[in-house]
Fold:
Amino acid sequence: MSRVAYQGTAGAYSHLACTKVFPDWEHLACDDFIGALDLVSNGFAERAMIPLENSTAGRVDEIYRLIPRTQLFVIAEHFEPVNHCLLALPGSSLDQIKRVRSHPQALAQCHQRMINLGLKQEAAVDTAMSAKGLAEQGDLSVGAIASSLAAELYGLHILHENFQDVMGNTTRFLVFSREAEHQHYDAEKRYMTSLLFSVRNIPAALYKALGGFATNGVNMVKLESYMDGGTMEASHFHLDIYGHPDQLPVANALEELRYFARDVRVLGSYPMHTYRKSAAFV
Structure:
């Protein structure tokens, strides 16, 4: 059976995403992101499902520092709507809950709800771990924020569905593989391309590096900077664009990027997720 690795405990949102994209695969829980990526690098798993950003809490900073250290390729993206549930032990009620545990990202996404209810927040390793710990400890005054899958797996009661502050909360995942896919352009599909680069130490380096995308009509939909290597001397960038390198405008833009930037690495081109085809992205 094929395997897909994810960070977290069974019932985590990454696990939920795996069940959606790879329903018939074995799902491998890992303690951390690098562990999930390493399972793919060493051939024990065929894929890794890794969260990159959330529409409410922003980017997952650790991922930007880890991706350059691997030789893996991005072969797909997945957008998973987040339905945070306030969970409690069977027999407990909202009036009894005094403290709520969850991953810091989930706490941030439900911050105002908990403030309004006067609940104390406690950070946990991940959402599902907070649910599992609650089931094991049996404290009626403690709640957890996690998925409905976690509630099902650990026998917890859902006190409140859609507990997040902002409706429409969504997490974007990238799927990593040892081998690149979608290397040839199919005119019937719409593509995303993800890449990494660093800028040269010259005036207006970033402006010059990115200028080719504007002049060639290539839409940049994400640009993230991060520091790497233990110094503060150079910035590195993660860039997502619409299109495929086999398309002439994209090829020309990448050629210009390579002239002004250094260490340009195409992580992968992959079909655009259906979520992007909604009015918000068109």
In short: DSSP finds nine helices and 15 strands in the chain. The CA atoms of residues 81 and 143 lie 22 Å apart.
